[in-house]
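Session log. Operator J.P. requested a structure for one protein chain; no other inputs attached. Running the standard single-chain path with token output.
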Amino acid sequence: QVQLVESGGGLVQAGDSLRLSCAASGRTANIYAMGWFRQAPGKEREVVAGIIWHGARTYYEDSVKGRFTVSRDNAKNTLYLQMNNLKPDDTAVYYCAAEINVHGTVPLQLYEYDYWGQGTQVTVSS
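Structure written below.
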């Protein structure tokens, strides 16, 4: 089992920055990849970014490329999402997820992830 707890969400204005954190505990040695997803009201949950836990490979959804950066601190078992130049369209509940099965690349689909956090709200006002 892997437990995930997100933090760092909040209410900001367009153009501001936020850094989300996701603390992992439990059987973290089994983690292959971690991802950030978001779900806006009335929309499906979508992938935002992902990273291989013991590698350098990352993935970014097109709308966040150049603005968001995913990183991790393996020693602290913590995943981060630095979000710069936030836009109102970034408003959503942000979830982190962990995958323990090896895929060969960064998993992008919800069903590929085994463990999920409870989510943290990010609201960007115009």
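Operator note: The mean pLDDT is 96.
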